[in-house]
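Thread: Newbie trying to understand structure tokens

Hi all, I'm a second-year student working on a class project, and my supervisor (Dr. K.) asked me to get a predicted structure for one chain before our next meeting. I've only ever worked with sequences, so writing a 3D structure as a token string is new to me. If someone could post the tokens and maybe explain what I'm looking at, I'd be very grateful. Here's the chain:
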Amino acid sequence: MKLSVEKQWGNKWPLIVIAVACLGSYFMSLSNGYAIDDQLINSANPYVSQGIAGIGDIFLSPMGFYEGKGFEFRPIATSTFALEYELFGENPRISHLINLLIYTLACCLLYLTLRQLGWKNETYWAFWAVLIFAVHPMHSEVVNNLKNRDELLAFLLGLISFWYAIKFLHTNKGIWLMLAGFSMSIAIFSKVSAVPMVLIIPFVLWFVKRASLQRALGIFVTLFTFGWLRNLWMNLKLGGNLERGYAFYENPLFFSESAAEFVSTAFASICFYFKMVVYPYPLVSYYGYNQAPTGDWLSIETILGLVLCLIILVILIWRRKQRDLLNLGLCLWVIAIAPYTNLLIPAPGVVAERFAFLSVLGFGMVVSHWVSRAPAGKVITVSLICLVAMGYDNYRSSEWKDSFTLFKADVNRAPKSAKLHFLLADQYQQKAKEAGATEAEGFYHRAIEGYQKAVEIDPTYSNAYNVMGMVYYNNLNSPGQAIPQFQKALKLKPQSASVLYNLASAYREAGDLKQAASYFAKSIQQGRKDYLTHAQLSDLLMKLGQFRTVVAINQNADFEANKDQLLTFTGLAQLHLGDTISALKNLEEALLLSPGSQLLKNEILKVRQSQKNGR
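---
Reply by user tm_fold:
Sure, no problem. This is what the structure looks like when written as tokens:
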């Protein structure tokens, strides 16, 4: 049955209720600031801070960098932040308002799209499915975390693609199919999480609209082809796929080649997502090792996940001839959650609430199937549960106020998450920088406690050791306590130039000049080519009497902006070696570049006086 736009808008109350539910669930988010990972999209991003002028570069650059490597490419969402910065400057409240409006618009469009299918009762099944989707607390991360605007836009644009695909099925006009493909391409440019919709859209049209397999396949091929444009653009403009390195605490499967570990983790992940979609508590901003089980066939989560998969499979086989909401909801849940089960590709953090965003629609359909067959009492029950969920959404939104509030709340719910302890420790460092001298030391010690907990959970967490050492060295003036932490970090990452530099600095402060010089030299060998490191090494070698080495490294160095300093080190070392002719030449050349240097004037005067006395 084909529904006109007028008829769809004729009955507005479900649409109004859904919009009010969205706004009512997250109005507390409007007073929030920036939180986890939001630095990727605020003024800390150099292209966002350029406003509209930076949009061109956004389409030619990775979303962020990690240890010098670019990762992720989500130019649509990032461009919206650049436009927002152009109009409003850096204003997190405006950003949260826009996120909420996009979410509300997406939920309303979802309702209209489901009605456009013209399936079953054209209003009420879609209303209940979307209402449950709109208020479900699993979406609190996507709405409250500004960085996740990419998730919201991918969903909204995917729905537009869905709408056009339905129009194509109704009219058989190719223009609608092309528009569906184009919308899907933009959705995937927003975030690759839109990819499951490439399969979901033709599947739903086949399941609900009884489109032929041939037409469903044609829609799938079109969406897939347009979706592949992102990869083509990345290959042409960014040199291929972007992928940052991952640490053990993010997901141990990144370091595993055991198929059995991947499979067992997949079952445990399925158990997690099923539990959270039914009973979304507690909500946590980051899970990871050792909060989520990985590679353990004997864990209760793995066993329950396996049982759940068998139950779903039996239901779908037993009811294979039934084209109803229960089967559709189960199929959608499986399709949407499958990419995030860790079966084929490890997921950062192992599991995450944002990964379940689209799958909640399948759950909403299953509940809608139950409600549509239930007496009024059960309808009231579901309505009351939705009201409770709205209250919980706002409570959770208040915890997303800023990073410190968020991590402090979450670390108690996920005490085994190494990453959360690290993130909270970072926030204590920030608190210390903002506090007075009396309070700062206490915050720094709280930070050390957090880093210590992180490495107790994950002894391979090299960055936690490194940052803990920096707190001891930079903030607590304790190089003796810093050195063991840097050594542990270096053992885990022996080629890390930054750790080598930190260890060298600590040894220098502790008075061990020989060790300091050795580690400064190693940090340079590993790629730390800045002049400061080079100068500190030269200074230490001078104090150690290794003058020939000083001459060698400075004659071979190339720091055009600091050429006078290189010549000075070389000249002073040559003086100690007795080569006064070469020393005077280098010192005089240095003075030409730095005519105001009293040190150079004094040294040159001494050399000339010595030469005069020698004659």
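A couple of things are worth pointing out once you decode it. The radius of gyration is 30 Å. The first helix runs from residue 5 to 10. Feel free to ask follow-ups in this thread.
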